[in-house]
Amino acid sequence: MQEFELIAKTFQGLEEVLAQELTELGANNVQLGRRMVSFTGDKAMMYRANFCLRTAVRILKPIKHFKAKDADDVYNAVRKIDWSQYLDLDTTFAVDSVVYSDEFRHSKFVAYKVKDAIVDYFRETQGERPNIRITNPDVKLNIHIADEDCTLSLDSSGESLHLRGYRVATVEAPINEVLAAGLIKMTGWQGDTDFIDPFCGSGTFLVEAALMACNIYPGVFRKSFGFEKWKDFDAELLQEIYDDDSQEREFTHHIYGYDINVPTVEIALKNVRSAGVSNIVSVEQQDFRQFKNPSEKAIMVTNPPYGERLTPPDILGLYQTIGKVLKNEFQGGEAWIISSKQELFENLGLRPSFKVQIFNGKIDCDFRKYQLFNGKLSDFRAEGGKVKTDEERRLMSDQRRFRTKRDDFKKRYDDEDHHRFDDEDLDPEYLILRRKHREFEEVHGQRKSNRGKAGFGKREGGYKKGNFKKDFKKGGDSSRKGNFKSGGEYKKKGFFRADGSFNDAE
């Protein structure tokens, strides 16, 4: 198949992680950009990128690069494209715009000019116009303008890729799925130890870690992708990618989640079950002050409240407690914490061995590593312990070099006209789904029947007989027989069972 240019968008700070993912997936000509990674590949690579990548927000396929000094130049360039290759009169479409230019001060106006050009093309060539639909269009277009450089692309993803499809319940201020996966990858965790999140919320870190540990691709839960409505959509090729579970692997450790709030624990359990990973993930109600040193080697990755969207009564005291518990009960472990304020990190009373700048939405955060050990640092190093890996040193060096761009990024982010369509958390579809949770469940909870309509019914139910995807869609235990640890050995007093009931027995 013919190769072509592709662009994978991501969050600030995750560009290198995404580039590594693409390289491992087999993409060619991988190049880093700001909040994006460009690469080349064929149709199969584009499908795999959407299906397999954990740290991409969306995959764009550029169809035209051009120069424009004003909106009229944009209109004329777009008008010259043969739109019959991409759209029909019965095809609905929408245009998103991202603008970084002194000449183009209103991104919505740029989007309107692109829409006008497409509509005028069809009026002049066919005498009628296609319809525009803001939410759930058949074809989604993206125009990116940096100074005079313009790129018009087809959005192959449709809805943002962070909308995995396994989240059936949520809490206030959940961490984005793409960001969660990127942070876990940044730690270097390979599923070779237990995994702990003591402030698990809705369970995003838990589910993303479980999928990563078993190498289950996030695309298995998606209802659909944008490219499924394109004229050249290859249903058999997507089915082949969907059915390929050869890369999945057994996870021989366990993932533990805790939260002080009982309703929150129940929400996390719902999402864990929806993702089909309840056999390797336990969720319990527990105050972090009760945390005890685990018997097995473990890594901790967590997103405690930091007073931006959730504000506990004594947030400084909370961070003091976190620091004390880690020093006393997590010796020999490795803890990674994302938070937004320097004074909160200072209240931990711990010295980070690694830190990297991350933007959680528009909140300026740091992601910091704390290496916990007994005794003196010199003794720890003498025994072969590493506070900081070579890769972490390189990343920190890069951070210092680009630190001057931090304020500039924040300024752009605060400008609504510049990030209205660029911030994936503010995508129109996501705003609707976030406000109306029931609609979210309806959209993402019925892939089986929808796939059948799209031509995926060559096998019974559209899936391999007995594989993970089929079991998941039937609502049963989604693990393969013998693949995961039995959940029974993790049950203890106060443990929430997979069915949501509470085990109060010794």
List keywords for this structure.
506 residues, alpha/beta, VC0802-like, Rossmann fold, 2 domains, 7-stranded mixed beta sheet, disordered C terminus
Overall description:
The protein is of the alpha/beta class. It folds into two domains: 4-155, VC0802-like (2-Layer Sandwich); 177-438, 3-Layer(aba) Sandwich (Rossmann fold), CATH 3.40.50.150. Helix content is 35%, strand content 19%. It contains 18 helices and 16 strands. Strands 2-3-1-4-7-6-5 form a seven-stranded mixed sheet. It has a seven-stranded mixed sheet with strand order 10-9-8-11-12-14-13, sandwiched between helices. Helix 3 (71-79) packs parallel to helix 4 (107-126), helix 9 runs parallel beside helix 10 (342-348) and helix 15 (428-435) packs across helix 16 (437-444). It is elongated.
- Supply the helix-strand structural class: alpha/beta
- Biggest beta-sheet profile: 7 strands, mixed
Low-confidence segments, ≥5 residues, pLDDT <50? 376-380, 400-506
- Global Rg: 24 Å
Give the neighbour order of strands across the main sheet.
2-3-1-4-7-6-5
Residue fraction in strands: 15-25%
Q: What is the fold named in CATH at topology level of the largest domain?
A: Rossmann fold
Overall domain count:
2
CATH hierarchy, class of the largest domain: Alpha Beta
Rounded to the nearest angstrom, the distance between the terminal CA atoms is 60 Å
Shape: elongated
CATH second-level architecture of the largest domain: 3-Layer(aba) Sandwich
Tell me the number of helical segments per DSSP (H or I, 4 or more residues long): 18
